Amino acid sequence: MVTRKKADVENRAAAPPAAGWTFLSNHAHVLICLARKPDDRLRDVAAAVGITERAVQKIVADLEAAGVITRVKEGRRNHYEIHAERPLRHPVEAHCRVGALLKLAL
In this structure, is residue 93 part of a structural domain? Predict the structure, then answer.
């Protein structure tokens, strides 16, 4: 017989993490999605990350402006090229490259 306290602990361990914060930013999430599927539509990326399509558009513009990605038009769709050699932006991790982050996440 499982006690109520033990069952509660087991259920919490099996449950997905609570919403709130994550270790990576939405910029990192979008970058990881585009690295996995460089031909995805931004609405698909938005659904995967859990943010609006407009927010993804802004993040993609930020990543392009920073030289982290390049958008290549292919017919009516976009293809995203990742520049893995670019350094991460924050001073704490500026010694690391985008490729190192992606290697951990992919």
Answer: yes
Q: Note the pLDDT tens digit of each residue in 34-55.
A: 999 999 999 999 999 999 999 9
For position 62, which CATH number holds? 1.10.10.10
Q: What are the tens digits of pLDDT across the range 59-97?
A: 999 999 999 999 999 999 999 999 999 999 999 999 999
**Alpha helical stretches, state H, 15-105:** 26-36, 42-49, 53-65, 98-105
The dihedral through the CA atoms of 63, 69, 72, 76 has a sign that is negative
Domain for residue 15, yes or no?
no
Among residues 79, 84, 80, which one has the least CA distance to residue 101?
Answer: 84
The answer to whether residue 37 is domain-embedded is: yes
Cα separation, 73 vs 29, in Å, equals 22
How many domains does the chain divide into? 1
